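Hi there, hope your week has been kind to you so far. Thanks so much in advance, here it is:
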Amino acid sequence: METKVRENEGTVVLRKTYVWPFLNDWKAILYLIPFLIPFTIFYLWPVCRGAWMSLHVWNIQGMQKFVGFANYKKIFTDSDFYLYMWHSVYFVLICTPAVIVLGLVLALLINQKIVFRTTIRSIFFLPYVLSVSVISFIWLRMFDSKYGPIHAFLKLIGIPGEIHWLTDKNFAWWAITITTNWWTVGFVMVLFLAGLQEIPTDHYEAAKIDGAGAWKQFWHITLPGLSRVMKIQVFYQVIACLKLFGQVQIMTGGGPGDSTNTMIRYIYVTGFKKDMFGLASAQSIVFCLMMLLIALIQFKLTDRQD
């Protein structure tokens, strides 16, 4: 069909429009195709396939039997599910605040006019470009209870005995947290640095004229100026901590006992160790929905604060 459109000079031009609105933007669709193809193949299709697998008894040989929602019922009657979910949440609670605070402190220090600022920033950011396996193996050696550098340092400062960082449940989570913070703090620091540079210097100059000290400037200017960056940081770190797997798999293997097993490793063991891919798919769907719920709660809380 054709519609009349009046241009600026008063002339009337006939333009062709389609019954289906999205056909009017066919050029935009063409631009989206390079994204939609890999998105469908590597994300949408696996999600749909996983949802279909979760309704079956499925092993390495393929589909065995349709069981409907039996796999989902089995999840919520399994005590391990609640234990490992708590482990994932516990890691969020101890790791996220630590990495956010440490990243903010580093950003505030490096944002000052200091010598070799760019070099120092690069040094802190460098671990983030390494893979989780490299980071985990580095700290696996660092936390060696007999020959590791940390043991040697503690012995040097007069702390006797051996601390079994990775085999003692009182220290295992802290070892994983230290490893993760060392790996990711550079990324957090860089984002905070970008946020600090967006705060107008005029605000600080006006505060100094009014007699505001460093703490008041931080509390009333810096923190409000970093509010948007802070929300992004918290959201990203919560999701990243919930997906903890590599550090646990390499450093502790979920031990000692089951004290450091997380939801992702729970799904991995169910699928690849127990050969129960249907149940593992159901666990993945449930865990994904839980992360979406947590993300929704975060958005709602930040919207209320705004």
Remarks:
- The radius of gyration is 26 Å.
- The beta strands are 2-6, 12-16, 56-59, 62-66.
